[in-house]
């Protein structure tokens, strides 16, 4: 942003003359707090020479008020008490600049998102909180110094943390645009949770058919350096110029010479739970997470390996490296994208639902793997207790969400209603005779085509939706719930 042609000469040594402008923002602010009172209160604060209020400070009239006071020499610092700086800070900085005042002598107090919107039922309290915000903004504005706008060289490269579907798409967009990308993923393969899904809603597209081509594209893009089984250790630097330290965990198998033949895994005597299938299927201590994994080279899980040496004996390329050590990399990037994804909620803390106690109570993610054609049961949903396909299935919604008791989370998890509907429909397609129930608080069909998807589940697949929150789950002697 260029400075005004006729800037007001401010050295930072002058006595601060702060002007405070309080915005009504329609009823967003003015309907909750006493705006005229706030403007009068501002006048009582140190270094404040004027306090004004207007319906919409972001309008041309509101901006002109600020510009006129600056040009008249009345003020040399500006505070606007209004909405979030993320929305209109550039607007007010530009107004200051056009009036000849250094744009960095402006400060914005957020009395909408941080005050009225979260205290709308406490009018006296909201007004007092708004006073606090204004007082803090004035104190800061009084200490502001004029700053120059400088240009710095930006590294034409990007670090992306997380190689799920979001991270991969970002990497491909940047890589295809000619930028160097460092894609960091903490697990041995890219793909994220989407690689574990069977289908996507509401189109019921094959998830693997969507994500595996992208995984291949990422691995073959010359501008993308894939750093799997790696984690970011530290980030230093400043905007446009970051130095990132990345720790590559040892695979204990040379990734360059490994040909992915799998003989080591076949001969490995150690069996442990497969994380990709959420513990519902076994894997060896030498493994690839799943058949379509990228990269497809093997890794030794040293948490379970007993160093028996069998894999080293049978490996033809001699790729086993028991003495492998972590590798520290340092890269310079101009921008960083965090696409770190999520962790599924662990319902074992909610004892009333019996997860972890009763074998036939599973999570939505476990159901997803059971429905998957390349899952632990190859798409046949079987009860863990007796390996039989159930005739009745119940989905319990809002487990761990919309909970105001303080035990779990207050927020709605957003996707649960739709993926439960999707899974219920998938099971109904395979077992039309089955009785399927979804116990819900509210159905949140939040996207295009989602409402129709939900309605068709009941009309066309016979899925029963029952509104209510389950208080307790019990089982009988046959492990029926």
Structure commentary:
The protein has 481 residues and is of the alpha/beta class. The chain folds into four domains: 18-141, Rossmann fold (3-Layer(aba) Sandwich), CATH 3.40.50; 157-249 and 332-338, FAD/NAD(P)-binding domain; 263-325, no CATH class; 347-467, no CATH class. Helices cover 27% and strands 20% of the residues. The protein is built from twelve helices and 20 strands. The chain has helices at residues 27-30, 35-43, 60-71, 85-98, 123-141, 165-176, 207-220, 263-267, 310-314, 364-371, 416-430, 450-461, and strands at residues 18-23, 48-54, 77-82, 106-110, 157-161, 180-184, 199-200, 205-206, 224-227, 230-238, 241-248, 271-273, 282-284, 286-287, 299-300, 327-333, 335-338, 392-396, 435-440, 464-467. The strands form seven sheets. It has a four-stranded parallel sheet with strand order 2-1-3-4, sandwiched between helices. Strand 12 (271-273) and strand 13 (282-284) form a beta hairpin. Helix 6 packs across helix 7 (207-220) and helix 11 (416-430) runs parallel beside helix 12. It is globular. Residues 1-5 have low confidence and may be disordered.
Secondary-structure map:
Layout: E1 18-23, H1 27-30, H2 35-43, E2 48-54, H3 60-71, E3 77-82, H4 85-98, E4 106-110, H5 123-141, E5 157-161, H6 165-176, E6 180-184, E7 199-200, E8 205-206, H7 207-220, E9 224-227, E10 230-238, E11 241-248, H8 263-267, E12 271-273, E13 282-284, E14 286-287, E15 299-300, H9 310-314, E16 327-333, E17 335-338, H10 364-371, E18 392-396, H11 416-430, E19 435-440, H12 450-461, E20 464-467
Parallel strand pairs: 1-2, 1-3, 3-4, 5-6, 5-17, 6-9, 18-19, 19-20
Antiparallel strand pairs: 7-8, 10-11, 11-16, 12-13, 14-15
């Amino acid at each position: 942003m260029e400075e005004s042609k006729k800037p007001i000469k401010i050295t930072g040594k002058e006595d601060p003359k702060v002007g405070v402008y309080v915005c009504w923002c329609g009823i967003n602010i003015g309907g909750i707090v006493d705006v005229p009172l706030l403007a009068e209160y501002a006048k009582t604060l140190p270094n404040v020479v004027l306090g004004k209020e207007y319906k919409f400070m972001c309008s041309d009239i509101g901006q002109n008020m600020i510009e006129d006071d600056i040009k008249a020499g009345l003020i040399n610092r500006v505070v606007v008490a209004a909405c979030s700086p993320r929305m209109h800070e550039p607007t007010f900085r530009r107004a200051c600049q056009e009036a000849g005042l250094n744009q960095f002598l402006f400060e914005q107090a957020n009395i909408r998102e941080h005050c009225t919107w979260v205290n709308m039922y406490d009018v006296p309290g909201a007004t007092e909180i708004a006073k606090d915000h204004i007082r803090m903004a004035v104190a800061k504005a009084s200490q502001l110094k004029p700053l120059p706008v400088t240009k710095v060289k930006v590294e034409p490269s990007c670090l992306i943390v997380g190689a799920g579907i979001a991270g991969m798409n970002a990497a491909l967009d940047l890589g295809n645009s000619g930028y160097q990308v460092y894609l960091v993923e903490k697990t041995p393969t890219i793909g994220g949770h989407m690689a574990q899904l069977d289908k996507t809603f509401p189109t019921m597209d094959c998830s693997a058919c969507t994500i595996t081509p992208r995984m291949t594209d990422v691995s073959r893009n010359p501008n993308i350096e894939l750093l799997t089984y790696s984690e970011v250790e530290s980030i230093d630097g400043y905007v446009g110029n970051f130095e990132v330290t990345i720790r590559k965990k040892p695979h204990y198998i040379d990734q360059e010479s490994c040909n992915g033949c799998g003989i080591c895994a076949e001969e490995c005597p150690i069996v442990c739970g497969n994380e990709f299938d959420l513990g519902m299927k076994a894997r060896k201590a030498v493994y690839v997470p799943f058949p379509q994994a990228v990269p497809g080279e093997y890794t030794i899980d040293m948490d379970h390996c007993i160093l028996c040496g069998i894999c080293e004996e049978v490996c033809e390329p001699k790729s086993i490296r028991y003495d492998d050590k972590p590798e520290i990399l340092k890269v310079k990037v101009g921008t960083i994208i965090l696409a770190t994804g999520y962790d599924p909620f662990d319902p074992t803390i909610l004892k009333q639902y019996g997860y972890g106690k009763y074998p036939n109570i599973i999570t939505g993610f476990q159901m997803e793997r059971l429905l998957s054609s390349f899952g632990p049961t190859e798409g046949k949903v079987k009860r863990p207790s007796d390996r039989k396909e159930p005739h009745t299935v119940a989905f319990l919604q809002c487990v761990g969400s919309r909970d105001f008791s303080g035990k779990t989370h207050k927020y709605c998890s957003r996707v649960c209603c739709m993926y439960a509907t999707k899974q219920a429909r998938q099971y109904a397609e395979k077992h039309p005779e089955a009785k399927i129930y979804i116990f819900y608080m509210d159905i949140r069909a939040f996207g295009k085509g989602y409402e129709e998807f939900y309605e068709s589940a009941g009309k066309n697949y016979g899925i029963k939706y029952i509104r209510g929150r389950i208080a307790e789950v019990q089982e009988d002697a046959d492990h029926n719930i």
